[in-house]
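> call design_seq(struct)
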């Protein structure tokens, strides 16, 4: 019977039959489950973000035109503002990218009403960021308390962590909270105030964090990064307690660094490679609270020249982070996370390959006029492919809805900034 088929067709139909084995069916059903799990996770994240949008709208209906800063307009009274705690913003810098200057301006033009200082920390004057930041500080010298610090070359940890620790050493003696920001974070005017308010409400918070909303530039690499970050965004859209931590935005108690509480300084300084992974491990080991408020979502414009090779290099670095650890338990967790990531990645990709084979086999039967008896083809393969297509469509709609809501939230949190829009997203690339 197989002699009547072309060699290529015979291989195609053989694969299609093999992909209807119990194990192959399990893999394809697992792909559907992964898609639906992502869809549910994004739907919950969209609910949390949308709830914050509705709260802001309700506040504006009640006459609070400054709802993007705080829900209760009475908090803007002078008697409240003068009692706000001092915050030091530490920004470890390296290099000068396409959007860095715009991001820095959004950070230093915060509308936080309490004492605020900004520390830009670079390795040396040879860093391209040094001259750009120096010009920025000169332009805003009468409006903000900002300075640039030379940290020197790191010898015991990553350069970013070294810059952060040098910044902490130089912060004001009365600083109550320290906020670490990356140069790719575009802050909203009320972001620092919102983070500080949460810290004041709940002193048990160890770290407050947020997460970026990627704005693809149009290149394939930028959409790959957008796709990579979207599943992670679910862990930061809880509206409260989370186990995840993003190093681009971390607010902590300054005294934790002054006293080296829980080993935060020594843990970072002595061999630390990834700031967020190290601090998340410390928080987990000491049962400390990490939270992510619903307003902590930040526009993240991606570089226009972000190629696929640069994305691949980024992915390799993200994987290498899992090779760093602070304890044996942390090492085991990172190994488990790496294995889980690999398993889910292949578990997500394999069903699409199988579905493509089923569809190709069905098309060959239709185009070349093979009989179903001749190829022993059944409809089960197409049924599985159809289920995967439906689950994928559900997943994409959920991702689109979350992106739409986060874009709307960012626009409300930064009313004076240029409006973000979904029109810039190429959904065929997505």
């Amino acid at each position: 019977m197989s002699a009547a088929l072309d060699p290529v067709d015979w291989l195609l139909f053989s694969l299609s039959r093999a992909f209807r084995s119990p194990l192959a069916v399990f893999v394809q059903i697992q792909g559907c489950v992964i898609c639906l799990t992502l869809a549910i996770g994004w739907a919950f994240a969209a609910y949390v973000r949308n709830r914050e949008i509705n709260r802001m709208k309700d506040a504006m209906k009640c006459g609070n035109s400054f709802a993007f800063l705080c829900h209760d307009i009475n908090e803007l009274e002078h008697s409240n503002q003068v009692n706000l705690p001092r915050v030091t913003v530490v920004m470890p810098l390296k290099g000068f990218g396409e959007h860095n200057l715009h991001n820095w301006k959004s950070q230093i033009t915060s509308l936080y009403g309490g004492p605020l200082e900004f520390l830009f920390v670079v390795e040396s004057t040879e860093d391209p960021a040094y001259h750009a930041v120096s010009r920025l500080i000169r332009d805003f010298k009468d409006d903000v308390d900002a300075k640039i610090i030379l940290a020197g070359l790191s010898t015991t940890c990553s350069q970013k962590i070294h810059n952060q620790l040098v910044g902490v050493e130089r912060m004001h003696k009365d600083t109550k909270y320290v906020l670490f920001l990356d140069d790719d974070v575009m802050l909203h005017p009320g972001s620092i105030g919102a983070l500080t308010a949460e810290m004041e409400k709940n002193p048990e918070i160890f770290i407050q964090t947020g997460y970026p909303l990627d704005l693809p530039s149009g290149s394939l690499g930028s959409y790959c990064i957008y796709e990579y970050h979207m599943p992670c965004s679910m862990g930061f859209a809880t509206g409260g307690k989370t186990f995840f931590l993003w190093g681009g935005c971390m607010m902590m108690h300054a005294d934790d660094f002054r006293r080296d509480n829980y080993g935060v300084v020594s843990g970072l300084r002595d061999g630390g490679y990834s700031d967020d992974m190290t601090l998340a491990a410390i928080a987990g080991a000491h049962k400390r609270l990490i939270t992510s408020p619903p307003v902590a979502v930040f526009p993240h414009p991606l570089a226009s020249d972000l190629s696929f090779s640069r994305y691949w290099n980024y992915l390799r670095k993200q994987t290498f982070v899992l090779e760093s650890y602070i304890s044996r338990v942390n090492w085991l967790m990172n190994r488990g996370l790496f294995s889980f990531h690999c398993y889910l990645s292949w578990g997500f990709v394999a069903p699409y390959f199988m579905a493509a084979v089923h569809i190709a086999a069905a098309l060959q039967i239709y185009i070349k006029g093979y009989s179903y008896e001749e190829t022993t083809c059944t409809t089960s393969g197409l049924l599985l492919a159809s289920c995967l297509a439906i689950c994928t469509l559900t997943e994409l709609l959920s991702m689109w809805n979350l992106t739409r809501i986060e874009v709307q939230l960012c626009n409300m949190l930064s009313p004076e900034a240029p409006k973000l829009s979904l029109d810039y997203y190429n959904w065929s690339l997505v």
